[in-house]
Design brief:
The protein has about 140 residues and is of the alpha+beta class. About 45% of the residues lie in helices and about 15% in strands. The longest helix is centred in the middle third of the chain and has 22 residues, at about 50-70. The chain is globular. About 20% of the residues are buried.
């Protein structure tokens, strides 16, 4: 579903604004055609599930507004009835998280994130993929 730049942009903007608002340190991100990878360090008093939930909520709202504005049939396909009420559902209800326990684990998670588009044959190098933070790292040097 994340196959156009408007939807990808909504997700990227939501990631950036939620991380800024919650003081999460965003180490890496990539928006793939059907999923998103994030490497985040939340403050101790912030629950990661709430951060992800807010990213999903904000991006889904923007995407829904675009679909309604364009009278897209996709809007109807993504509307379900839950608790007797029609609801637009863009994201899966849960996410899959992984806790990195070492600096090397964080580095591996960032690399995994950035190399995803390359492994899928979408680009030749991670920094060539527009919908990713790989360009932040440039030549692969650490970003402090």
């Amino acid at each position: 579903m994340l196959t156009n730049n408007v939807f990808r942009g909504a997700v990227a903007a939501s990631i950036e604004s939620v991380c800024r608002q919650t003081n999460c340190q965003l180490l890496a991100w990539v928006v793939m055609p059907e999923h998103v990878h994030l490497v985040l360090v939340p403050p101790l008093d912030v629950k990661i599930g709430a951060v992800i939930g807010e990213i999903k909520k904000r991006s889904a709202k923007i995407i829904h507004e675009v679909l309604v504005r364009h009278n897209s049939p996709l809007q109807q396909r993504l509307t379900i009835v839950r608790d007797g009420e029609p609801r637009f559902v863009f994201w899966m209800r849960r996410c899959f998280d992984y806790n990195c326990r070492t600096e090397e684990g964080v580095r591996r998670a960032i690399a995994y994130c950035h190399w995803n588009p390359v492994k899928r044959g979408m680009v030749r190098a991670p920094e060539d993929y527009v919908w990713s933070s790989a360009k932040w790292y440039g030549d692969g040097a650490d970003v402090e």
